[in-house]
Design a protein that fits this description.
The protein is of the alpha+beta class. The chain has one domain: Roll (Nuclear Transport Factor 2, Chain: A). 49% of the residues lie in helices and 34% in strands. The radius of gyration is 29 Å and the shape is rod-shaped. This is Mce-associated membrane protein. Its main location: membrane.
C-alpha cells in the first residue's frame, strides 16, 4: 500500500475531462448571456426605428393637406396621435377644414431630416425638419414652407403614437 495515496485519486484523464466540462459549461453560460444582450439590443434598435418611423410619418401627414381630401388627411394625423395632441387636433379640425377649403389649400409635406434626441422603451422625443410645397388662392404658383418640429411619442398597445408636437427654432 502506498503512503499518502488515496484510492479515490483522479486520473489525469479524469481531471482533464472535468476541466473541459467546466470550461464548456462556462462557455455555454457566456453564450446564453451574450445572446440575451444581443436580443435586447436588437429589440431596442427595432423600437427606436419604429418610433422614428412614426415621427416621420406623422410629420408628413401633418404637413400634407388637400382641400379635396381633407377628411382623409385629418384621419391620417389622428391615426398616429394620442393624448392631448390628438384631442387638440380633433378640436381644431372643423375650423382648419373651413380655412383649407376657403383657400383651396394643397400642401405636400416631405421630411428632410429626422432623429431621436431621447428614447426609452416607453417614450421618445424626435426632432424633424420638413418642407411643404403649398398652393392656395393667395399663392397659386406655390411656395415652400420650412418646418422644424419636436414630437413627443409614447408606446401604446397599438404602437408608437405622437402625444405632443411643437414647432421649434
Amino acid at each position: 500500500m502506498a503512503v499518502g495515496r488515496s484510492d479515490r485519486a483522479m486520473s489525469p484523464r479524469s481531471v482533464l475531462v472535468l476541466v473541459l466540462a467546466i470550461l464548456v459549461a462556462g462557455a455555454l453560460v457566456a453564450v446564453a448571456f451574450l445572446t440575451v444582450l444581443v436580443v435586447r439590443d436588437q429589440r431596442s434598435a427595432d423600437a427606436r426605428t419604429d418610433a422614428l418611423r412614426i415621427a416621420r410619418q406623422l410629420t408628413v401627414n401633418f404637413t400634407t393637406l388637400d382641400y379635396r381630401t381633407f377628411d382623409e388627411n385629418a384621419a391620417n394625423v389622428v391615426s398616429l396621435s394620442s393624448g392631448d395632441f390628438r384631442s387638440q387636433f380633433r378640436n381644431a379640425t372643423a375650423d382648419l377644414k373651413k380655412q383649407v377649403a376657403a383657400n383651396k389649400t394643397v400642401s405636400r409635406g416631405e421630411v428632410l431630416e429626422a432623429g431621436l434626441v431621447s428614447f426609452d422603451p416607453d417614450s421618445a422625443r424626435a426632432l424633424v425638419v420638413a418642407d411643404a410645397s403649398v398652393t392656395n388662392v393667395a399663392a397659386p404658383k406655390g411656395s415652400v414652407k420650412h418646418y422644424r418640429m419636436q414630437l413627443d411619442l409614447v408606446r401604446e398597445r397599438a404602437g408608437w403614437r405622437v402625444v405632443d408636437l411643437q414647432f421649434v427654432g
